[in-house]
Amino acid sequence: MENEFTKDMSEDEFQEALDELQFTQVGLMRVLHKDERTGRRWRSGEYAIPTEIAVLLRVLRAWKKIGCDPLTVIPAGDARSRPSPRGNAKKRQKKEAKANADATASEEKEATK
């Protein structure tokens, strides 16, 4: 049974949804674990947009209209292609390791005086 959420999604509606949700096409494909070309094919009309993707985007748009941030339900590495929190953690770990090494070297230097 077709309703407003399950009806076919046009290429224009797909792009409008991405724009409204502030998603990049590439970012959305990463979240969906799809190839970037698939998003281009959906956008160009070469491939039909699957019903489950249309429903997802429409639900996220509906949530946004009532004031919910759709990205609170999307895991890290989200559709906005922000830097991954994991990447930030790695940088933080490197800085901490360097700081610890510097502190240790400084302590050893003080001990030998």
Beta-strand residue percentage: under 5%
Instruction: Give the strand tally.
Output: 0
The count of domains is 2
Number of helices: 5
> If you average the pLDDT, what whole number results?
79
In which range does the helix fraction lie? 55-70%
Q: Low-confidence segments, ≥5 residues, pLDDT <50? A: 81-85
What is the fold's blueprint, element by element?
Blueprint: H1 11-21, H2 25-32, H3 36-44, H4 51-65, H5 85-111
Helix pairs in contact: 1-4, 2-3
Note the main attributes of this structure.
elongated, about 110 residues, about 60% helix
Structure report:
The protein is mostly helical. The chain has two domains: 1-82, no CATH class; 84-113. Helix content is 62%, strand content 0%. It is built from five helices and no strands. The protein has helices spanning 11-21, 25-32, 36-44, 51-65, 85-111. The longest helix has 27 residues, at 85-111. The termini are far apart. The relative contact order is 0.13.
How would you summarize this macromolecular structure in one to three sentences?
The chain has 113 residues and is mainly α.
